[in-house]
Amino acid sequence: LLSSQNNSSVSQTTRLTTHWLSHLEVYVLKDAVSFPINAVPRELMPHFHVVQRKSELVYLPLFFIDPQLQPTYYWMELPGVPTERLNFTIEVIPLSIGRFRLRCMLAQAVEQLKVMGIKDKDLEDLQGIFTETNLYLLLTTVVVSAFHLFFDFLAFKNDVQFWRNAENTTGISIRTIVWRCFSTSIIFLYLYEEKSSLLVVIPSGISAIIEFWKLCRMTKVSFSLRGGVSIGQRSREEEETDKLDAYFMRRLMYFMIPLCVSGAIYSLLYMPHRR
């Protein structure tokens, strides 16, 4: 009885839909490449068919066909039993040896991810990156992302190096550091809740950690396993900076508080919010 109830609940939550593949892409190797008999690339082995012609071994034309790796817009959902004729198009696409091997390696990677238990939805997203995105656009995105991470690393490195060597923080606003701790934490939590790309979430989290570390440097607070928490003494020049900082920040708050309150009220009344 319990198993029947579980099966009925699964059938109610899972709705199977029939799809028709209206366009099939067939990839063929266009280059005449010679392979040593004992050095054929592993990803090409399932597509190899060797025949003997006279005194030499030759392989038949290499084709790659995988309906699962077809773009999603080629799959047409069928609401029921089709009453009209369905179109089916076969497109033969010649590829160079490099792009042909890339397709084969992608298919093998998908099969390995299935064995590892990766969800089908995640696999579809991964396949869409390679099948529905232009290769040059994909390479450009990878290069730009790499430069983005590189410059983020340089910014973090220079920031940490400056604050590590700064023994005197005269002229630096401690209230600005507190505000940056608050704002970077809010940004990080928002990006994490929205499940943004790790390329954005991780640098944002590192930036928030660095801001809190800078606040500890400003307030002369240090942590150690033996001594615990220790608070140092700020210099006279730093205390003078704090007085000037408090004076001008107080004047600035007269303008900032009305703007923040009015912006919050406008957002509450006219902007959509998640429940």
Automatic annotation (TrEMBL):
Name the record gives this protein: Lipid scramblase CLPTM1L
Sorted UniProt keywords: Membrane, Transmembrane, Transmembrane helix
Entry's localization field: Membrane
UniProt catalytic activity: 6-(alpha-D-glucosaminyl)-(1-octadecanoyl,2-(9Z)-octadecenoyl-sn-glycero-3-phospho)-1D-myo-inositol(in) = 6-(alpha-D-glucosaminyl)-(1-octadecanoyl,2-(9Z)-octadecenoyl-sn-glycero-3-phospho)-1D-myo-inositol(out); a 1,2-diacyl-sn-glycero-3-phosphocholine(in) = a 1,2-diacyl-sn-glycero-3-phosphocholine(out); a 6-(alpha-D-glucosaminyl)-1-(1,2-diacyl-sn-glycero-3-phospho)-1D-myo-inositol(in) = a 6-(alpha-D-glucosaminyl)-1-(1,2-diacyl-sn-glycero-3-phospho)-1D-myo-inositol(out); a 1,2-diacyl-sn-glycero-3-phosphoethanolamine(in) = a 1,2-diacyl-sn-glycero-3-phosphoethanolamine(out)
Superkingdom of origin: Eukaryota
Broad class of the protein's primary localization: membrane
Transmembrane segments: 135-156, 252-271
GO cellular component: endomembrane system; membrane
Described function: Scramblase that mediates the translocation of glucosaminylphosphatidylinositol (alpha-D-GlcN-(1-6)-(1,2-diacyl-sn-glycero-3-phospho)-1D-myo-inositol, GlcN-PI) across the endoplasmic reticulum (ER) membrane, from the cytosolic leaflet to the luminal leaflet of the ER membrane, where it participates in the biosynthesis of glycosylphosphatidylinositol (GPI). GPI is a lipid glycoconjugate involved in post-translational modification of proteins.
Topology versus the membrane: Multi-pass membrane protein
InterPro entries: CLPTM1
Family to which the UniProt record says this protein belongs: Belongs to the CLPTM1 family.
Organism of derivation: Hydatigena taeniaeformis
